[in-house]
Design brief:
83 residues; elongated; mainly alpha
Length: 83
């Protein structure tokens, strides 16, 4: 007897892990900003974390690695919505 829940109908989303890493980088940049790290320190720290996560020799750095400074700049130069 077959059950509906045994056959998932979730569409494949190969870009899902990249979305997760991008969101994590932005959240980490916001955290470092709140902790009063400089923009350069935040970029260096986030890129170091990515290098560590992709440290396996057969795994290349992610395609968005070079865009980390732009992401951090976006977070650091965004106006705070909290007054």
């Amino acid at each position: 007897m077959a059950f509906d829940w045994m056959h998932a109908t979730i569409p494949p989303r190969p870009d899902r892990s990249e979305e997760q890493f991008l969101r994590g980088c932005r959240e980490r940049a916001q955290l470092l900003r709140n902790l009063h790290f400089t923009e350069a320190q935040a970029v260096a720290r986030i890129q170091a974390n990515l290098r560590w996560e992709f440290d396996v020799p057969s795994t290349p750095l992610p395609s968005f690695f070079e865009s980390v400074p732009a992401m951090v700049a976006e977070v650091y130069h965004r106006r705070s919505s909290v007054a």
